[in-house]
Amino acid sequence: MKRLDENNLAQVARIEKQSIDCPWSEEVLRKEINNPNFAVLEIDGRVIGYGSYYVTVDVANLNNVAIDEPFRGKGYSKKIMEYLVLKAKSDGLSSMTLEVASTNFIAIRLYESFGFTVEGRRKNYYQSGDDALIMWLRIS
Ligand SMILES: CC(C)(COP(=O)(O)OP(=O)(O)OC[C@H]1O[C@@H](n2cnc3c(N)ncnc32)[C@H](O)[C@@H]1OP(=O)(O)O)[C@@H](O)C(=O)NCCC(=O)NCCS
Q: Does an H or E element contain 11, and which?
């Protein structure tokens, strides 16, 4: 797993734009360069996907996890999630939380497969009108 850097930034920004409803721009992503909690999965110099979290006190707040479309359904998001959960654990954090659209069944299944459970719901949270599910995972 690599960090975000000048060489993979443009590829990450392209995947972000293709995958996320309110994508982070390249300028916003640039601020994440060298963030140890921003994991980029590359194969032969090509970015396959990425995921990141920010820390508040002892909680890892997951930002987006996204996989480039041609590489979806091959288990790559699980590798990224495994890395991020282990990293949060080894940094002594107690839990991880995230928000996901209630209609994003693939992502919800991914998170459930790691043991995340739904502990809250924000009505009409997204521009689409979808609710946000708040999911938590205890990691220590
Ligand atoms: C959600 C996303 C990251 C999953 O990445 P992926 O690499 O395709 O997923 P994986 O191949 O690692 O599969 C992980 C789990 O997701 C679920 N999943 C993946 N593809 C699925 C599909 N077509 N249908 C149902 N569940 C699916 C399964 O639970 C799977 O685990 P399993 O194979 O053990 O059953 C990817 O679809 C994506 O980038 N989506 C757009 C961005 C997004 O919605 N991000 C999450 C919200 S921020």
A: helix 9-19
Q: What are the pocket residues of ligand 1 if the criterion is a CB atom closer than 6 Å to any ligand atom?
A: 19-20, 64-67, 72-78, 100, 104, 106-107, 109-110, 113
- Report domain 9-138's class: alpha beta
* Atom 5 of ligand 1, nearest CA residue: 77
What does pTM read for this prediction?
0.96
Cα separation of 118 and 134, whole Å?
6
Q: Give the residue extent of every domain in the chain.
A: 9-138
- Tokens 């949270």 — which residue? 125
Instruction: Quote the ligand 1 centre to 16 CA distance (angstroms).
Output: 15
Q: Which of helix, strand or coil describes residue 62?
A: strand
Closest CA to ligand 1's atom 12 = 75
* Run means of pLDDT, 10 residues per run, the chain, 140 residues: 97 97 94 97 97 98 96 98 98 98 97 98 94 96
Burial per residue of 92-122, b for 16 or more beta-carbon CB atoms within 10 angstroms, e otherwise: ebeebbbbbbbebeebbebbeeeebeeeeee
Q: Closest ligand 1 atom, CA of 69?
A: 39
